[in-house]
Amino acid sequence: MTTFDRLAARLRxxxxxxxxxxxxxxxxxxxxxxxxxxxxxxxxxxxxxWLLLVVSLLALVWxxxxxxxxxxxxxxACAGWxxxxxxxxxxxxxxxxxxYTVAVQGDRRRxxxxxxxxxxxxxxxxxWVGSEVVNPQGLPVLEMLWPLVPLLLGEVVRTRRQLLAEYxxxxxxxxAEREREAARRVREERVRIARELHDVVAHTxxxxxxxxxxxxxxFDAQPETARAxxxxxxxxxxxxxxxxxxxVGVLRDAEGEPVEPMPGIGRLDDLVGRFxxxxxxxxxxxxxxxxxxxxxxxxxxxxxxxxALTNVLKHSGARHASVSVARRDGALTVEVVDDGRPxxxxxxxxxxxxxxERAAAAAGRIDxxxxxxGGFRVRAELPVDEGGIRR
Length: 391
Hints:
The protein is an alpha+beta fold.
């Protein structure tokens, strides 16, 4: 870091009042030296010269609060020196600082009006002084230009500060938006994982409870049936553990990939078998291959069938249920139909809400409701190619 950089860094730590006093001291030093050393043929420094200097310096102390008024006072003092016959190169230093403050703390319109007034005034003073002294203040055209220099510098600095502030605001807004998006994704991921855990635990426990009830009823009279039901309970438990590992594996894997593939339509046979033996005869008709179905669609089909069969066992009192999966017109159609009483109202129930969320996540749609002749049907259509579902 250079000496100038260190000095600038130290100045930035000072309060505005302290900086203003330092500016007044520096301006007073150089202006005072110029006022004290005038050319021999011109008027030498007198009481009026030092009075104008003191007035200019006192005005500069308030340049941040009243920049236009300070510019008028320092400009009048500068014109007073010239009209008094005191010619110097640095006597306009106080008004230069004041004009810079006007531009850096104002707006473009105020800068333009200030520049116009200051330029015309400086040119008029140059014309007046040029007719009264042997060595004129300067050419009027040149005298009209010097007030524009600090105004232009202040305009540049103010514009740069505004741009930096806008960039900082944009960066802050972008960071806030990224944080909101990250929080939204976290919430969505929590909901998704909660839904997966609910599907795995609640539905599997329901199937295991049904199978355990079958085993208990047949324990004495039909031991083989009881053994088959217990084996099914064990199989359901292992399947549930595997799905739980796959779900929790998403949280452990740095890449966000599950350690095992999520269930799809290729495992519908195992799913239906898990619910078999609970007093409901379930048939499966599958006309779509697992390889031709996107994983998100396959998972949605699996969970919809799982939820629908759970409702059949828990609420419907049905004797028969059928599950069909077919691919038609760029969409995968899945239906679960039973012959019992309606499992849930078509407009309510958490099970139907969960199925609708599953279908929506796969960009599909679902209809559920009682059948005219009795029973209940759940029907979902999920897109599997670019054609999608026509709505």
